[in-house]
Design a protein that fits this description.
about 400 residues, alpha+beta, Transferase(Phosphotransferase), domain 1, 3 domains, 6-stranded mixed sheet, elongated
């Protein structure tokens, strides 16, 4: 018997198929005739095997290594692709946001920079700038609230040198923060006994805070009572009221003539007149103020500004004339009439008569030498001071 030259395929996992190649001149047909198969087996034949198609098969274990490397490569490629797509999405969304919100985002950035530049251009006149964390420390995390307004809230605070301060936190950010800029720029130019002192400010993104000197007696409106009030806490002597009226007038005159740049306040009212421990008045709240050169007598404005009841006619409607510092004088006059108690009498009379124009009512009563004062008992000296104010 010829020795069989048989190469048996190794028992290695991963062999997919076996191809048999019989190297003989006669073809062997595997049929039901078992003698032919027996003769082939007895004669011997060569066997080759492969799991790589028609290519030579590598050594055992190569397939598994190739698969591991391929798998890792695919995973790395997928992760890299996802990362690139993620970055592209972020960049696209950011660009779309800046494009779609250009009027807001871009403008806000420009406005913030403009505000900072505007404030810093004040040079030595610029007040101290505080961080928002410092503001929280000086107010003990806004513990003691002094008041609330349409702009935000006012809190009591203390500086490192133990000075008390009033911290005004701006909650209503109107437009591009023009009111905040106006207040810092305007008040930084002032130094007068009848104008409140700005000690510092905070400007951090949406955090806008003003730090003022503390006025222990609060605002003037707390000391002006209506006719039906029986409270004595808000009553001041006539002499004190007269001095307050004179002090406010001096403060306004300083804003018009004493500063290098004329300042028009546009919001003179009881709530914006603060009183120190000696009841000396100080003009505050310059959020609506306008800066103008001294040579300018008429200023241009878009829309009315101020508080109903104090606004001069020309500020409300240009048909009455141009807007100037005289518009503040009108508001000051309305404030004085409130201090004198005349407006209270007018309000009481209007309740049971036809509607009348307040300044016209004052003018007619003074011409007729009628009593336009309140019904409280006054000395002769008090009556003279009140009539001077009127």
């Amino acid at each position: 018997m010829h020795s069989t030259n048989v190469i048996r395929p190794p028992s290695t996992a991963g062999l997919v198929g076996v191809r048999l190649k019989i190297l003989r001149t006669a073809a062997i047909e595997l049929t039901t005739n078992g003698s032919a198969l027996k003769e082939a087996l007895m004669s011997g034949f060569n066997v080759t095997y492969s799991d790589c198609g028609t290519q030579p098969c590598p050594n055992p274990g190569y397939s598994s290594k190739w698969w591991n490397r391929s798998f890792k490569g695919v995973v790395a490629g997928i992760v890299g692709t996802i990362a690139v797509i993620f970055v592209m999405i972020i960049c696209y969304l950011k660009r779309e946001q800046l494009s779609n919100m250009g009027v807001i985002s871009k403008k806000k950035t420009e406005d913030n920079q403009y505000a900072k530049d505007f404030i810093m251009n004040q040079g030595s006149l610029a007040p101290k700038q505080y961080s928002y964390s410092n503001i929280k420390k000086m107010t003990h995390s806004f513990k003691n609230k002094l008041g609330q307004g349409g702009y935000g809230s006012v809190y009591k605070g203390k500086l490192l040198d133990s000075r008390l301060v009033a911290v005004k936190v701006i909650n209503e950010l109107k437009g591009n923060g023009e009111e905040f800029i106006n207040e810092v720029a305007s008040i930084s130019r002032t130094s007068h006994v009848n104008v409140v002192t700005l000690l510092g400010y905070c400007y951090e993104r949406t955090k806008r805070v003003l730090v003022y000197e503390f006025m222990p007696n609060g605002s003037l409106d707390k000391f002006i009572c209506d006719l039906e009030s029986s409270s004595t806490n808000c009553q001041l002597e006539q002499r004190t009221l007269f001095e307050i009226a004179v002090g406010v007038a001096r403060g306004l005159e300083y804003l018009y003539r004493g500063c290098s740049t004329r300042i028009l306040h546009f919001d003179i009212k009881l709530q914006n007149i603060l009183l120190d421990d000696d009841f000396s008045p100080k003009i505050s709240d310059f959020g609506l103020a306008r800066l103008c050169q001294k040579k300018e007598s008429i200023v241009s404005m878009l829309g009315a500004r101020g508080t109903i009841g104090y606004i001069a006619p020309e500020v409300f409607s240009r048909n009455f004339g141009g807007v100037s510092h005289k518009s503040d004088v009108y508001s000051y006059g309305m404030l004085i009439l409130e201090i004198a108690g005349v407006r209270e009498n007018f309000d009481a009379e209007v309740s049971h008569t036809s509607e009348r124009y307040f300044p016209d009512w004052i003018y007619q009563n003074l011409n007729l030498d009628e009593n336009v004062e309140n019904t409280s008992v006054l000395t002769e000296e008090d009556e003279q001071m009140k009539r001077k104010m009127i």
